Amino acid sequence: MNSINKEKIDLKNFTRDDLTDFVRDHGLSPYRAKQIFSWLYRPGITDFSQMTDLGKKLRKSLDDQAFFSSLTTRVREQSKDGTIKYGFLLDDGNMIESVLIPDGERNTLCVSSQVGCAMGCLFCLTATMGFIRNLTPAEIVNQVCAVRDDLLQRRLGTINNLVFMGMGEPLANFANLLSALKILMDQLGLNFSERRTTVSTCGLVPGIKELGEKIKVNLALSLHAVNDDIRGQLMPVNKTWNIAALLDACRQYPLPRRKRIMIEYILLRDINDSEKDAKQLAELMRGIRCKINLLPCNETPDLPYRQPSAEKIACFQQILLDSGYTVIVRSSRGSDISAACGQLSVSKEP
Prior knowledge:
Helices cover about 30% and strands about 20% of the residues. It is an alpha/beta fold.
């Protein structure tokens, strides 16, 4: 991010409503908030002097007390399959990663919400970092701005979909996540639609309910096991909110018509990949409008888990298909640059 006087206020932490309160508190008319907000997320805007429909006196006043941040890109790696991993340096020296996944002419950006993660899922490298801190709304939004600007500069299109499946548990940083989502989905902000925005959780039940009450987005649930025994071993969060509580929260989640919850299920060899597991999963999902994403484990030397055989994966999928579910086996993207699901792990500048 920009090196700025710490006494100044980063306007990119403000939703449009927050910015309206800010300008009122500084004796300005509320319409100024709309003017300023409309400039903050335009490509190529780096300082107040470029906001040409604001008077010079107002621009000088804003510059004296506020700023708007950006992220510094320290890493940009491209996989042989086209996936791009970005490493962003934060003001405090920590780093976060975002991953762009191209699919034909469409691009999906995987966004981080925390530096590290406190959830401790055993199959995820981010968990080995531990929890360092939450990202601010500006740090969340600026990942999207930085990648968008890079794509524009290289004439590689734009970002079509956002998925909060990067470093961290989004619902554990709820207030900042909510502010970031409001900015990203504001027509004067980044203008992403609810249909193109997905928040993933490992199972923070109160956060699922609150998310559904506060904003309309797609929900993805990291399930990864069909009984509390195995899930509790793999995912410590299950000891607080078990599978029954989790699925009850999903049933109560306010889904618009034709919308479904995305159930994420990582396949770990000889742990959760049996025919019995597939049949139990089919039973668990009864009464929940969902589609199921199967994720063959992304192997890494740092973790002991291995991927099931192709035959076993196909068998698991077929059982679910025969039970009437939409089931996709998600191909691993970016594993050669450690950008695949569960492989994000970095904390300090290299």
